[in-house]
Each structure stands twice: as structure tokens, then as C-alpha cells.
Amino acid sequence: MGYTYEEYKVTADWLLANTEHRPLIAIICGSGLGGLAEILKDQKVFSYSDIPNFPQSTVHGHAGRLVFGTLKGKSCVCMQGRFHLYEGYPIWKRQTKSAGKSANKLLTLSRSVEFSAEHLVTFPIRIFRLLGVETAIVTNAAGGLNENYKVGDIMLIKDHLNMPGFAGNNPLVGPNDERFGLRFPCMSDAYDRDLRKLAKTVARDLGYSDFLKEGVYCVLGGPSFETIAECNMLKRLGADAVGMSTVHEVIVARHCGMRVFGLSLITNKAVMDYNSESKANHEEVLQTGRERASQLEEMISRLVEGIEPNNNNVC
Ligand SMILES: O=P(O)(O)O[C@H]1O[C@H](CO)[C@@H](O)[C@H]1O
Ligand SMILES: Nc1nc2[nH]cnc2c(=O)[nH]1
């Protein structure tokens, strides 16, 4: 990773000095799902552009605000806008001497979008860890590959396929800082089984079982949507849904000992058939998010209500 522990601390300490909230749960909102942040009470809101070193959101449907507040009495922080590889943010970067030495220099650079390549896709996750966050709830909009999935289904993520990772693009590339986590973190338990079980109970109680699924999320680099051949290949490889985010955040969150719960809103059906007239598009993605917003808000609220403190187990 490109930043030193001390540089991450500059941002975390700035946030701790500017809010009284001490969140234990972080919620990352996917495309068009930023409304989730609105359910937090006693809000303290920061625009990303006002937070030292924070990357800037560039994608429609990602507002670029960090919202602190309480949900069902629990202190939370919510990212209204995440960062994607295709925005030009690196997933890892070589640690240069200057990056390692001068937090002040970084602070200056971060004020300009020209230096966006200085930021990492997963930068906020380690900030959350330094704020004391124990559990990450990661949401995304995804294309459904599984033929049983319908638009509007909510898929609990039980596992992932890290396609950029196969080519060496893993957010943990570079020197490992043991203060964050192990050199070789385990990923076979990335998506917490107890939280998935809780989510299934919550969904059943809310009457959502008809549109609740559980499956494997596959990340690609984007920004182009998949070809028909790519969709068919991903399905054969065992993916149920495809998107351009989440996995890097999950890897970094697990590395630093957070418990992770992930869900995908199936916003569109991946095009698998050469006779189909369907075309994936971002407007449909955002529209499906708007249509499922209230159910997602209800589900996340109940889930947060049921979350017990983390025992910080990493293998
Ligand atoms: O993964 P999130 O941020 O929800 O967004 C998804 O939706 C966008 C495409 O419409 C891509 O950014 C894809 O990753
Ligand atoms: N890669 C990818 N990302 C998405 N995000 C929402 N839908 C899709 C999709 O079909 N493909």
C-alpha cells in the first residue's frame, strides 16, 4: 500500500477531532444507494473535499460525503460514494520516499484533483479501522449472471472472485504493516457467516424472502460493461453477480480485522444471449437502486440493530 501508518493517522485524527461520533460500524453505499445514509440520526456530514487526503467521488450516483450518525442507537459512519479502479485511483502503489516521509506534503497534494492518482481505492477502509470501526457493511449495484436472479433481488455476498487479483492487482501488494494486519490474510471466511444468518432472519421477518438470494460476486475493472462472451464465462466460473467494486474494500477490511457483511442489489440482468436486445446502462442501475431504496434501508437498519460487538478474529 502507498501510505504509511502515520499518514493514515493524519486523516483519522482529523476526523476524530472534528466529530464526537465514535463509529463501530461503517456502511459503504453502492451506486444509487447513497440514500442509505439518510437513515442515520444526529448526523455530522463531511464533504470528501474537506477531509485531508480523502479521494473525490467522480461517478454519478456517488455523492462524495462521509456521514456520521447513529442507527438504532449504534454509532455508524456511512460513505455516500465509493472509489473505483476505473476512476483512475490505483489499487496499490509503490511507497516512494517522499510519500513515506511527509504527511504534510500529502495533505497539500490531496487538495487538487490533478493528484488523484495519489489516492488509493481502499483509503477510507483503513481510516475506518483507525476510527475504531469493527464491522463493515458493503453494498453495491451489480449485474445478475445467475439465471434465477431478477432485477431488484438482493444478493447476500457469500464469496467473491477477484479478477484483477488474478493479474496481481491486490490492494495488499507492497510492504506489509503489521499494525494493520498479517502479510497473508485468510479470505475463505471473508463474508461473516453469522451476519449472513442474521440478514436472512431479518429478511424473512420483513417478508423479503422472495427477493433474497445468496451468491458469489465477481469484480472486474470496468468501466465498460461486459460482453456477452464475458458474462457467459463468468457464470461458468461460478459468479452469480458482476460489478466493479467491493472486493478491494473487503480484502483491506479483512486484513485489518474487520468483520464484513456484503450485499449486491441486482440492478440489471447481465446480457447472456446474442439474440437479446438488452443493453446494460448506468441509468437502469440507478433507477433500480431508487426502487429498492426503502427495503434496503429497512434491512440495513434491522441488521445494524442486531449486530453484536466484534471479537476481532482474523485467521
Ligand atoms: O459497485 P457500485 O459502486 O455499486 O457501482 C456499480 O455500478 C456502476 C455501473 O453502473 C459501477 O461502478 C459498478 O461497480
Ligand atoms: N460490471 C458490471 N457492473 C455493474 N454494476 C451494475 N450492473 C453491472 C453490470 O452489469 N456489470
UniProtKB/TrEMBL annotation:
The keyword Glycosyltransferase applies. Residues 25-304 form the Nucleoside phosphorylase domain. A purine D-ribonucleoside binds at residues 226, 268. CDD domains: PNP-EcPNPII_like. Coiled coil: none annotated. The keyword Zinc does not apply. Transmembrane segments: none annotated. It is an enzyme of class 2 (transferase). This is Purine nucleoside phosphorylase. It comes from Acipenser ruthenus.
